[in-house]
Amino acid sequence: MASRFNVASACGAAALVLALGATGCSHADTPERQSSEQLPTTASVLAAASEADWRGVDPGHTLYMDFADGARVVIELAPGFAPRHAANIQALVRAGWFDGALITRSQDNYVAQWGRPDDVEAGDRGEALDHVPAEFDRALDGLGWTSLEDGDVYAPQVGWVDGFPAARDPATGRAWLAHCYGMVGAGRGMAADSSDGSQLYAVTGHSPRHLDRNITVVGRVLSGIEHLSALPRGTGALGFYEEPGQRVPITRVVMAADLPASERLGLQVLRTDTETFEQLIRARRHRNEDWFIDPVGRVELCNVPLPVRTHGG
Amino acid sequence: MASRFNVASACGAAALVLALGATGCSHADTPERQSSEQLPTTASVLAAASEADWRGVDPGHTLYMDFADGARVVIELAPGFAPRHAANIQALVRAGWFDGALITRSQDNYVAQWGRPDDVEAGDRGEALDHVPAEFDRALDGLGWTSLEDGDVYAPQVGWVDGFPAARDPATGRAWLAHCYGMVGAGRGMAADSSDGSQLYAVTGHSPRHLDRNITVVGRVLSGIEHLSALPRGTGALGFYEEPGQRVPITRVVMAADLPASERLGLQVLRTDTETFEQLIRARRHRNEDWFIDPVGRVELCNVPLPVRTHGG
């Protein structure tokens, strides 16, 4: 008997509803449904967003990490949380530290990590400092905040700050970035202040929130995370590649600001301090897409998508 | 200046502490530390586990999914939660339905999915039924339960049943399997009862717990998840591969019980109804490994590892 499932169309009957926008696959825009249902979905909220709901990404805080096969990973730094690390990473990028650096580690359900291991040629550090303080958290005073009221296992309060998932504790007056999928941090040794931004990692598995406040989070991947998450896993302890030849060379890392405007990608992120984003949270909480039978009515911090688009897209 | 990080050893200073057992990298087994610290870590709890803390995996409920390059994914079915789907999957496996089936979809931070799309030769369904009921949840009566007391965003109560992560609601008297990383479910269309086990998916990203009670979970990957999670992402909507040639052929799927005993892997899973597992939960909650500076003191359901070993290993 033939399969009753049709996957020739990605929107066919067998298609599991996806994590981010079910763009093009939502049934909410079918005319006969529109007349009877107006419950927002991720796709309908994004379709209705205005230009003002998006913000440009500061090219001075954005780096492009390129690979020989043309793959590009774009990372937005978070100087609001890790100003010293962000500045050091910028200095390292501008000195060429990451040009010819290597992805040294891919641990399943955890992180991919890159830098310059001791057994390769030392890179130029330029104006980068040899030591920067740990930036595990910051004062919550003065921080814009969009709250998620659905609770959290790891922190008293969670929400978003300018497009980044974050947590805070009013009792201590501190806030910190949350280790959601795609977040980028600065590898460190045993000492709290042993990271300097010369070695970075990105989260590629279930969000390891136990790392929060134990390591400096420096930003997040805006696009191209699949070039890190789909890497072959290292077979050494902690997912390190055991053979030098398994490491993946990084061709070049540049700050977007150092490229001519014509070579910048013009990415925008959905602002998280808007009514549109509140609608997106609700759409993710209630999952009004037709496919869902028993929408749970709650959503976890790391399951709310943070949409990115090309300017004007 | 040379990097100060040493990644020649995976246990070196720059190694981020890992998700599962920091086996071989934990400092807890260093003699001088043992005398001063006895706080349990994941590694020390596992090292102290007895033979009785492990249970064998029933070969009648275990399937081996093999690929041409020698990769193998091992899945343990959960007939305690999805008996009708488990039986249908067993029938499909024995009819050869999955021999020559294809991985059709790899969506970043979500799922990999496999089956027989309409545009390939129909497989033999053997004794498999054309229709099985949805098995989204079950009565919690009679279910062994190990509770996690750290809370959960999605469910009133969470914990483990015989090695599977689960949730329950005393108010409704129902329990269900939780969509943690590596869990396996049965793809369905729009109708609740449109899954029959002939198309399966595995979770390869941040746990999509909003799928709980919306689709039938049939088991979990015991080993080889990296062969699914590291697949190139499909570029079509929902991560479907756009070109037939991008799909990954599955050479053969067999029930372990149908192999001679000498060809079975003899896997064991750590029992979740033991004091050892309670210690593991505590070790994950408090993260006593030296690397951690600010252990959070709480842990989320999907961040507690469910260790698997080869018998006697």
Automatic annotation (TrEMBL), chains A, B:
Residues 1-28 form the signal peptide. InterPro entries: Cyclophilin-like_dom_sf (IPR029000), Cyclophilin-type_PPIase_dom (IPR002130), E_coli_cyclophilin_A-like (IPR044665). Keywords: Isomerase, Rotamase, Signal. Its EC number is 5.2.1.8. Residues 71-255 form the PPIase cyclophilin-type domain. GO terms for molecular function: peptidyl-prolyl cis-trans isomerase activity. This is peptidylprolyl isomerase. It comes from Alkalisalibacterium limincola.
